[in-house]
């Protein structure tokens, strides 16, 4: 039987893969095809990548525009944290749909389905299947098809730490790979991302998190060998969703716009700036269209901005000037090393009220070099062991690749299958 197994090491920078801390990934590279120019989405943030992974489409099409975003509710721009467990259910009530294009879970519902185990934010986990076609296991709530909530002992009751990651990996191997073997089984580890947001890149605790994630991935590689010995034709994809930059400075974009007279107050809905870390989306209410030129000029003049993406350029980064979205900015970055010698620093937008910033630690979201440096390795039919491919790839290519292996139609997606002879 054809099967696809995916392991995501959230936030793993490909330049941190090496024998010292990730020996399992180094061994896997010998037998897999490596995609050396793999990029993230924009924003390079887990919820955005999750929806792009699940749909094979860019944010302009699936509509999960950022880790935080605004919805037009009764004609008013309302900011939301897309990591909230209820966000996509709320979006369906407001806009008529959770995601605007079908997920892998929906496409595979009639042919054995999808099982996902995830230890990232609830919103990112549920972005794989907001309409309840497959099985989703997450510490904030686990669901069977029909969004039937699973109870103990079937629910995934783990913590967001090393022990939780290991327990989740063990359950994934036992239940998803050995007992059930669905067409698509995904293990989305929370590490090293969770530790990188709290510890400097290259610090002993961050390097330890790399090693833990590597060990969990290696356990899955071993389990996949056993699946193959039982006769399954398995495509094994191991990757990350984005890299990280070190935060060199924190900027309060909302306060800057208010001080410049371009936003009325913290509470006003005229201009709304939900942040995805080192990138921010800027929504402008239709009644304030006369401010757009001044906002663009102001942003372009700031020393905390690398790139202002205006209404005419949003499509080039996979976004669309719709629902009030008018600008996106990727915050200032450089190639300087941090105290541990890890290169790449960025300015972080001040997180929403009540959330800690990440000064000196890792963050992502923008278009800077290292946050756009996730890794991708694929082993199985159509991939050449031990080779390195420099064709640019991104998360939207994974759903078409998965469906191609499962001999399922992959129509209507923005990405393309990566199997030899299939890619353009
Ligand atoms: Zn992530």
Name a few traits of the molecule.
424 residues, alpha/beta, eight-stranded mixed sheet, four-stranded mixed sheet, binds zinc ion
Task: Tell me briefly what this model is.
The protein has helices at residues 23-31, 46-55, 59-62, 87-95, 104-107, 122-126, 162-180, 193-196, 204-229, 253-259, 292-300, 398-405, and strands at residues 2-9, 33-35, 68-73, 76-81, 114-118, 135-137, 143-144, 148-149, 184-189, 233-239, 245-251, 271-272, 279-284, 305-309, 325-331, 333-337, 343-349, 362-363, 376-379, 388-389. The chain is of the alpha/beta class and 424 residues long.
Query: Order of strands in the sheet with the most strands?
Result: 6-5-9-1-10-19-2-20
Oligomer: single chain
Q: Strand pairing plus helix content: what structural class?
A: alpha/beta
Beta strands, count: 20
Number of helices: 12
Into which percentage range does the β-strand content fall?
A: 15-25%
What integer value in Å does the Rg equal?
21 Å
Q: Largest sheet at a glance? A: 8 strands, mixed
**Helicity level, as a percent range?**
25-40%
The molecules bound to the chains, other than polymers, are: zinc ion
The average pLDDT score comes to: 97
Provide structural commentary.
The chain is α/β, with parallel strands linked by helices and 424 residues long. It contains twelve helices and 20 strands. An eight-stranded mixed beta sheet has the order 6-5-9-1-10-19-2-20. It has a four-stranded mixed beta sheet with strand order 16-17-11-18, with no helix packed on it. α1 runs parallel beside α9 (204-229) and α7 (162-180) packs parallel to α9. It is globular. The chain starts with a strand and ends in a 19-residue tail after the last helix. The structure holds zinc ion (ZN). Zinc ion binds next to loops.
